[in-house]
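MODEL INPUT / OUTPUT PAIR
PAIR INDEX: 1
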Amino acid sequence: MPNFLDKIILPLWPALAVKRLNNRIIYQQLSVFDGAKKGPPDKDWPSARTSADGAIVPDNPVLDGRARNVCINHWAARSAQKAYRRNVVGTGITAMAAAIDPFTLDEREEFNKRTDWLWKIWVKNRNFVDIEKRKSFYSCQKVAMNDLFAVGQAFIYKSYQWRPDSVGLQLQMFEFEQLDTMISREKTTGNEVRHGIEIDQRTGEAVAYHVCLDSHPLDSYLSKSRRLPADRVIHLFDVERVRQSHGFTMLAPVLKKLWNIDTLDQYTLIRARVEACMGGFIKNGGPAGISNILSAKASDGKNTTANGDQRIVLKPGMFHELSGNAEFQALPTMTPSNNYGDFMDAQVNNVGAGVGLDGATLNRDYSKGSYSSQRQGMLEDYKEYDMMIQLMIDVMNDDIRREFIDLAVMEGRLEVGADWHDPMQRHSYYETEWQGPARPWIDPKKEVEAAAMELDYRLNDRREIINRKGGNWRTRLKQIATELLFAKKNNIPLPDDLENMVKNNEKKQSNEKDEEEEKPDQQE
């Protein structure tokens, strides 16, 4: 079929129009992918191509507004958000210094002890960590995870405030909504600004953030933005495409479905309430208008509105009087239908799959699965959580930790060697072991037996197994050593000691028996 341009060309250059049409037909015939066909019934299938930012930036304000709304008002979205927060952050992604000498591989023990002590003082004190003095470092992680789920990105501005009792690093979190959308190009550099993020045109990297940092633009229309250098801003988001400068909500694939589920649920409940109000119908022999049908009066005694519209008031157990032959007819209750629960479960499972979670995690109903299915669902969820934990460590936690150590050295709170001034050697001082929340076991007995087999067959080590459970292997082994010393000092037998005592007694009895058997031979 000729398109609009062909129809314009045809009267002027018929040969060109025919050539264009023939080329298009040949091109379409060469297509072998069903997903690329444009004819019926796929004609209305969107196929527009765009860059990462071209797809994200224009829709983000609407997407984020709707996503924040469902995270507040829809139970499934809220459940998914809390599941990520609970399993990615939990009580906090903790750190333990692991600095080593890169040549001898010896642990920098004193440096590590001092770093962990300073870090412990700082992370727990909201007056030190947060410029608003409301959030500890672990609370900042929770807020960041909430925003990462709801709007696909979280922002932290790193500042400094000297204090005598702790390292002076201070964090200021801000929201996507605080980015300045009124600037399209930076005057000094000439760089393009995409929804508040200034982009280097050649490399695509963010060079600055234009943020209403001193007040929220949704609170005050007088808010003015500041240009913050990119190296002072932590922008936490999951990069999915090349030259992507913004994140987007994890709920994007399921937002429409959540809205439809909520609407269906509300209308089903309304219908059930209406049906519950209906007691039945009574037919009489005389004429009846709508006013006679109503057996319930409004509280103000008026059955019409100010505009003259009829008001229908429903009350539980009410009857309607209808015209016709006298007859009583009960109204059957049809809502909800028998397949309503199965249908809603299927929708919730779809939402869970869209956000990377098992459906049972959203509705917190584990009664329908076997041990194997629950374990498989949990393992798949763990993979999603682990990726988020690693993202937070790589983008947010490591950045803050390095800044913290740098400031502690500059303030004279940490002593370092001469190799600190070598940029290559300095990285060894930043080495940190991060630990996410513990992973609960469905069947502890089976998991312990599996871990023991892994150790026996040298398929794993204690470090990996302990870390998998949410502990730190260094701390755990030190605790075991302390426990053993304390028990030995106070003559307290531990399970391992009791087992060894039994084995020693059995060996001793066996030796005594052998000696008794040898005595008659010696006498002869």
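PAIR INDEX: 2
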Amino acid sequence: MTVSGFTLISRILGFLRDMILMSIFGVSMTTDAFFAAFRFPNMFRRIFGEGAFNAAFVPLFGRKLDEEGKPEAMRFARNAFSTLMVVLGVGSVIAILGMELLMMAVVPGFQPKFERDLTNTGKGNAAWTVEVDTRGAKGIYIELEGASEEVRGQWAKRIKFNDLSLLRRNAETGEDEKVSVTSGELVVGGLTVSGEGGSYLDERGNVSILLPAKHGFHTFQTVVEVQQLQENADVWSADLRVYRNDPGTFDLTVKLSRIMFCYLLFMALAAHLSGVLNTFKSFAMPAAAPIILNLCLLGALGWIWSTGRVDGEILAWAVAVAGLLQFSALWLTCLVKKAPVLPMRPRMTPEMKRLFLLMGPGVLAAGIQQINLLVGGIIASFQEGAVSFIYASERVYQLPLGMIGISLGVVLLPQVTKQLRGGDPKAASESILRGMDLGLILTIPAAVAMIAIPVPIISTLFERGNFTGTDSVQTGYALAGFALGLPGYVLIKVLQPGYFAREDTKSPMIMAGITVAVNAVCSIFLFLILRPYGFGHVGIAIATSIAAWVNVFLLWRGLKGFMKTHRRDRKRMRGMVLASVLMGVAVWGGWLGLQDFFTHSQWHRVGVLALLVGMGAAFYAWLVLKLKVTTVADLKEGFGRGA
């Protein structure tokens, strides 16, 4: 239980961290920027560090250890470590310098939907028609960007917005109707406008049009008119931009990404050290290392709360420091375990060529879920608040995924590699099948519970401070969408070692490419369908689940001949599903009877949710034993072997 135990501690601290973070910041520009910035280095850390690099490194390192002994194996490990340090070090410097361009690709929705360099108008007149899609938007933000308040003030006096209006479809006639926003109206059917004067621009040259919930507007339109300047006046440089998101979100994302990007270097090196330790069957520190990140962020949140300085940069620096500390802890553990990984001059040996040959396809194969989440994040950036909704829901469904799926994958890879090296493919197949059993018997009921009562789960965990009931509904629906694929995410982690242990990264790469395409198409399609109702992010979650099951199907099909199921396996699977569905109905029925308590205090919600979860877990345990899906002895053996 070492891996799962430390992972559970890390996930619990992560929940505490995110509950406090959401309470302080709410769903805001800062959380959108922080989560978008953190996802980028975190994704590359998981792909290159935990994913592709280790998927290629662990089998090669294990073979070297078995065939040539520890000294040669450690020489290979040091060479791989040094090469990774140089490549990622140079790559990180380049990425930090070009972060603005990178973020344009990662969060294009944070970019302005209309942008014009006003300097080009000089002293003459100019007019442009502006149209912005408002489906799923919380507001429209118009900003003048200049070198000083004097510059912005000059341009603000010259700019007027004619026919400032919003369009929505009339349900009865099917025709577009126009809602005009005039200078005297601060509220139009729940619409809130900030600004002043006939032009609407305030003294800084800005205006915000905050849209009501479920507003139904599909287009914002206006004609921007720049009036002529006096003949002897100077022309100063300025830009006019129109956004769907808060204007500062993109710049803040770039700043936080630059601070946190060094986390990629430290965590990729830490993941490599974890691979060395796992091969020597030392699982404790690699599993405990993520706890350091949560402790650093909790410390930063405590400082923010005590000082009242609500600043995303503090969180970003906490992430950067955590990366250094995690790396240091793992490096010292290798030293204590008499497996020191010291830097050396990188050499392109035959083993390193083999490593890169295997790692190339593995970049896509092992990082499939991260790539799918990145695709979802790119699309989510076009709906204000969606990045935060998706992040919060991911934190919940990744608790069982981290405890079970990732833990099983970590343990299975060296175990299956050793069995195949020993010429026992049957034992390797049985190891994967038992991993599937252990993973599914826990994740299927977890997924069903998240689908049955997603909003109560989210409201209990996050709804306090600046995180509102509306945010709970939005996040809860996303959780249900992700939960549809939870067993699939776990199966991917369990099935992939069947390829990596045989040094086959090409097949998973092809399958991953298909899965990414499926995810992108489904995400765009479902996002566009649901965004008018304010739930575009839920479409992204469902698309991610669809992609996960497509990947599972392809991985399973590719292992045909190696993996052989028996009648008892299929019977156990049917029993798991039946027990989970019955448990889900019971939990949903319990919530219907107790839902009034969710309108009371936070402690009432915690108590009722704990009662529902406890009742569901006990009922499910009774069902799986009654249906003879498993036995207590089998569970003890499975957890003991999977730890």
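PAIR 2 NOTE: The chain has 23 helices and ten strands.
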